[in-house]
Specification:
Elements (H helix, E strand, L loop, with lengths): L2 H31 L15 H36 L6
Length: 90
């Protein structure tokens, strides 16, 4: 095994441990503070057309920074994977 393979496996193991810890903490908080969830079925929404258009425009504008942040996150992960991959210059 090369150093990059070991580092990659270590990174994956740390990520799994962190995700498991966060999941346990969220579950503990949810079960302690809140009653069990109830199912709801929405059958109708009374909303004027102009308000709906305004809401959808705001929604579209808010998605632009979110897409930029997700794109930067993907670039970071791919750069990290490229640095740890078999074609690095170590």
């Amino acid at each position: 095994m090369t150093v990059s393979t070991v580092l990659g496996l270590l990174l994956v193991a740390v990520a799994i441990i962190v995700i498991a810890a966060i999941t346990r903490a969220v579950e503990a908080r949810r079960t302690k503070d809140q009653p069990p969830p109830q199912r709801v079925v929405v059958t109708d929404i009374q909303m004027p057309f102009s308000s709906m258009v305004t809401f959808m425009v705001k929604w579209a504008l808010a998605s632009i920074p979110a897409a930029i942040i997700l794109g930067l996150l993907v670039v970071f992960v791919l750069a990290l994977a490229g640095a740890l991959g078999p074609y690095n210059s170590f």
